[in-house]
Amino acid sequence: MTDQHTKQQYLTFVLRDEQYGICIDSAKEIIEYGNITSIPLMPDFVKGVLNLRGEVVPVIDLSLRFGKSATKVHNRTCIVILEVPFEHQQVVIGILVDAVSEVLEIDSSQIESPPSFGARIRTEFIQGVANIEGEFVILLHGERVLSITEMASLIENVLEQ
Fold this sequence. Notes:
By secondary structure, the protein is mostly beta strands. It has one domain: CATH 2.40.50.180. Helix content is 13%, strand content 48%. The chain is built from three helices and eleven strands, in the order E-E-E-E-E-H-E-E-E-E-E-E-H-H. It has a six-stranded mixed beta sheet with strand order 8-1-2-11-10-9. A five-stranded mixed beta sheet has the order 3-6-7-5-4. The longest helix is centred in the C-terminal third of the chain and has 13 residues, at 148-160. The chain is globular and about 45 Å long. The protein starts with 6 loop residues before the first strand and ends with a helix.
């Protein structure tokens, strides 16, 4: 008899008092907040870029991306460096979060479908919701939240104005 459930590891983090998770396969590293160079005429959620060992990495404020207020920087604020697919290659991008929590191994049986209404972020961003020890963890589709195509079109619209 085979087990139909699969386990996946998720990097969990806090954003505005809510727990989120993203597949650990996307996460490259976690760095402390700092040395972000702002770029004029970018959408609010694009905080700027940072130099990561010679590579220019755009940094997105995930709270603003979700339509909430900007992340307030404090001692646990950090940047999670992710690799997301874009046009047959991997693109490196940073997301600003309030704090990183832990890596959780979540069984597929613990993941519920995203809510069809009432969610505080766009449902296409949500892979599912896991109930871990009585707390909900919103599991994100990294490639949709950080859609390079969508962000590029938003940036083009700003530049055209």
